[in-house]
Design a protein that fits this description.
By secondary structure, this protein is an alpha/beta fold. The chain contains 10 helices and 13 strands. Helices cover 36% and strands 24% of the residues.
Length: 309
């Protein structure tokens, strides 16, 4: 057993919280010290453009994966929603940490919910998925791109640059700022990003010692749910450039997957639900993706990809 493991992470406050959370679990279970190495990714360096315009997959993981491949680090911790559905050869997801609340949340300046926001209110979010679902319900809203960490976003909100902003509830909770949340959206209002709220521990496939350690951190129900969502995304060939939302839930040994594909303006939306046995999690994802494509999703996605060519 190694005396010390080197864990690669982005340097943001939230990423480091997540990295430390996993490091502490490893130390408490195995008594192994974990050194956290901060690695800057392309997504961290470009803060003045919407993610969809930057293009490419793995904006927040590629440089960390390269360090893993070069054996400069032993493992990496990512927000699962940032991990492309196709991993580089030789790398695997060794553990999926138990999911925090996957829903999206609204933080408004005056403490009002989505339906109470004044007509034409300015709302901050850089996510095409969130924009499409917001416009589907409130086409009058003015949506502006918003990047940066949570504190930066909150400062902009307080300065009156916008009336409200949309964030992942999991990140707000992890950073101890849940009291700032005005409204948490159910899936009928806004489906989250694939994998939102879950953490991925990525390792080298041939590193048996690290594989043995991180396998103890794996939360099987979360893995099944997230892999069902990722199978759907893989079938749709989606990423940051595509307004796709999905959420899998598990009850009494059955997995239910909800998903949607929307046009950029939110005027067209295809939604669906598929259920099945837990051990058929990925097949459920592929099946629902096929259904959504046949019901109009294929045309919506083709238009969006043309827009971002």
């Amino acid at each position: 057993m190694k005396d010390k493991l080197i864990l690669g992470s982005r340097g943001s406050v939230l990423a480091l919280w997540q990295a430390n959370f996993v490091a502490q679990k490893i130390k408490s279970l195995f008594g192994v010290d974990v050194e956290i190495r901060k690695i800057k990714t392309k997504g961290d360096k470009i803060l003045d453009s919407p993610l969809a315009r930057i293009g490419g997959k793995g904006l927040f993981v590629k440089e960390i994966e390269m360090a893993l491949e070069r054996e400069e680090i032993d493992l990496a911790v990512h927000s699962m929603k940032d991990v492309p559905t196709e991993l580089p050869s030789g790398l695997i997801i060794g553990a999926v940490i138990e999911r925090e609340d996957p829903r999206d949340a609204l933080i408004s300046r005056n403490g009002v919910g989505l339906e109470e926001l004044p007509r034409g209110a300015v709302v901050g979010t850089s996510s095409l998925r969130r924009k499409a679902q917001l416009w589907n319900r409130r086409p009058d809203l003015k949506l502006v791109d918003l990047r940066g960490n949570l504190d930066t976003r909150l400062r902009k909100l307080e300065k009156g640059q916008f009336e409200a902003m949309i964030v992942a509830f999991a990140g707000v909770k992890r950073l101890g700022r849940a009291e700032r949340v005005t409204e948490v959206f159910g899936p009928e209002t806004m489906l989250p990003a694939v994998g939102q709220g879950a953490l991925a521990v990525e390792i080298r496939e041939d590193d048996e010692r690290v594989k043995e350690i991180v396998s103890r951190l794996d939360h099987k129900p979360t893995r099944k749910a997230v892999f069902s969502e990722r199978a759907l995304m893989r079938a749709l060939e989606g990423g940051c450039q595509v307004p796709v939302g999905a959420l899998a839930s598990i009850k009494d040994g059955e997995l239910t997957l909800q998903a949607m594909i929307a046009s950029l303006d939110g005027k067209r939306m295809v939604r669906g639900v598929e259920s099945g046995k837990l051990d058929e999690a990925e097949e459920i994802g592929y099946g629902l993706a096929e259904k959504l494509l046949l019901e109009g999703g294929k045309e919506i996605l083709a238009e969006i990809r043309k827009e971002y060519e």
